[in-house]
């Protein structure tokens, strides 16, 4: 189905609302997901695939359809999410894919890890949300668990639903504590797309259409501590205060960019010297992804504030948070309602998060990530030597890795070639020069080897 045909089938509402139609549409999908997988008919599966495409065109955003390989690289029915387990995903028509995207870091524990699903189901049978008045034990206990995981004297936390909310909260905390408005972030950095966190992003494509954003934000090259010091010194000289330096331990969306080994220790020294807060955006790097529990652990650095998200919810429930020290958190005590949320830190999410942390520790996911990452880097070095005109570089830590190509066009040919060979990766038509390899940390070596075989076959068949 083409975008034009989907648009042409757009239904026009006969009146302002159709309550009965809304009920029927909702009930049909509920009935389908409640039907045992083996009993869902082929007719129903095709209906889901067709209507999903139409609904994206008519009710979500037509632009998504132009950028999705699941649409542009399929000849009949678009790939439609339906079932996943571990590192394997199946679409509604039963087509099986190796997942090397991992939901951009959501699926660190694998898709639908049984222990995490069981914890969420157990809490669901007790209470999916909290009362808003009584003290909720799940949120309080999860905060204690994370306080024992984090480095240094980080002790207090606030839970939300998404990574960008965690960054927003960290920015508010830094401004409240310091009384300053300025921030330093990095070029090509990514921190979320709500207006505050968007102000930190180092890419014009997301920022420019929405200017002006927050005042006082300066971007410097990632990995360049001298540039950070230059801005801090200049700001102090003119009395323009910097509340915090916000940095990813390893840049994720930019393509698994690892900074020099002295970078994070120097950031810590500079923030201490200029009395500025160091904020680590661990939304993508946290909870084992890079081969350590947290990305900053590679350099034994303790930030003042840490932001979490993605894998925190175990790939089962949306979950995020930001944590800091008792000294900094004290500025929130006079009015604890300065930053609130209705659904953030709900019992369902907290149960999934606690189960996810137990899985991370019991299965030693950081070690698995480190060892499998080293294995992949070794294999990709061989592919680089074999296809130097295609694979320009390969970088990252743990299982936050990226293939680097000479151009977006070549990168997209690889991404599309992998898609046609049933391997899910990132990489769109306009942003494919670096393609992340970010699978579940539980992924088996057998699946990694099969993925590598398909990468080799893809590169061998690329025509310039």
Automatic annotation (TrEMBL):
It catalyses: taurine + pyruvate = sulfoacetaldehyde + L-alanine. One of its GO terms (biological process) is putrescine catabolic process. Keywords: Aminotransferase, Pyridoxal phosphate, Pyruvate, Transferase. It is an enzyme of class 2 (transferase). Signal peptide: none annotated. Pfam families: Aminotran_3. GO terms for molecular function: identical protein binding; putrescine--2-oxoglutarate transaminase activity; pyridoxal phosphate binding; taurine-pyruvate aminotransferase activity. Its EC number is 2.6.1.77. Its cofactor is pyridoxal 5'-phosphate. It comes from the Bacteria. The keyword Transferase applies. Belongs to the class-III pyridoxal-phosphate-dependent aminotransferase family. PANTHER family: AMINOTRANSFERASE CLASS III (PTHR11986), PUTRESCINE AMINOTRANSFERASE (PTHR11986:SF112). NCBIfam families: PRK11522.1. This is Taurine--pyruvate aminotransferase.
């Amino acid at each position: 189905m083409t975008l034009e045909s989907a648009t042409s089938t757009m239904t026009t509402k006969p009146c302002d609302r159709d309550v009965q139609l809304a009920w029927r549409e909702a009930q049909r999908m509920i009935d389908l997901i409640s039907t045992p997988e083996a009993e869902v008919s082929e007719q129903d599966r095709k209906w889901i695939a067709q209507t999903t495409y139409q609904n994206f065109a008519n009710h979500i955003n037509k632009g998504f359809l132009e950028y999705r390989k699941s649409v542009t690289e399929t000849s009949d029915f678009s790939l439609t999410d339906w079932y996943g387990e571990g590192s394997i995903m199946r679409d509604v028509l039963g087509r099986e894919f190796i997942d090397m995207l991992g939901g951009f870091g959501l699926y660190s524990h694998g898709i639908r890890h049984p222990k995490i699903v069981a914890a969420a189901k157990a809490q669901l049978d007790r209470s999916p949300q909290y009362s808003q008045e009584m003290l909720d034990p799940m949120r309080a206990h999860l905060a204690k668990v994370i306080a024992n995981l984090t480095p240094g004297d980080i002790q207090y936390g606030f839970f939300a639903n998404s990574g960008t909310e965690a960054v927003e909260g960290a920015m508010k905390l830094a401004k409240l504590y310091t009384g300053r408005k300025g921030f330093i972030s990095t070029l090509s950095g990514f921190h979320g797309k709500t207006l505050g966190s968007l102000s930190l992003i180092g890419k014009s494509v997301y920022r420019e259409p929405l200017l002006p954003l927050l005042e006082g934000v300066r971007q410097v090259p990632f990995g360049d501590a001298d540039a950070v010091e230059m801005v801090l010194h200049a700001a102090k000289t003119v009395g323009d205060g910097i509340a915090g330096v916000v940095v990813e331990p390893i840049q994720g969306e930019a393509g698994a960019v690892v900074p020099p080994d002295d970078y994070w220790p120097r950031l810590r020294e500079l923030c201490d010297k200029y009395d500025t807060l160091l904020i680590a955006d661990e939304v993508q790097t946290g909870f084992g992804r890079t081969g350590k529990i947290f990305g900053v652990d590679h350099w034994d650095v303790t930030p003042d504030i840490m932001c979490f998200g993605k894998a925190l919810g175990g790939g089962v429930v949306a979950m995020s948070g930001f944590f800091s020290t008792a000294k900094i958190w004290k500025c929130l005590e006079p009015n604890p309602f300065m930053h609130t949320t209705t659904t953030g830190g709900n019992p369902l999410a907290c149960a999934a998060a606690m189960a996810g942390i137990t899985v991370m520790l019991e299965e030693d996911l950081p070690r698995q990530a480190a060892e499998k990452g080293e294995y992949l880097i070794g294999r990709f070095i061989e592919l680089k030597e074999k296809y130097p005109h295609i694979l320009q570089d390969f970088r990252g830590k743990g299982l936050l890795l990226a293939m680097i190509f000479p151009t977006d066009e070549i990168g997209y040919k690889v991404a599309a070639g992998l898609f046609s060979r049933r391997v899910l990766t990132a990489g769109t038509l306009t942003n494919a020069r670096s393609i992340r390899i970010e699978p579940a940390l539980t992924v088996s070596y057998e699946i990694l080897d099969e993925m590598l075989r398909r990468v080799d076959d893809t590169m061998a068949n690329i025509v310039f």
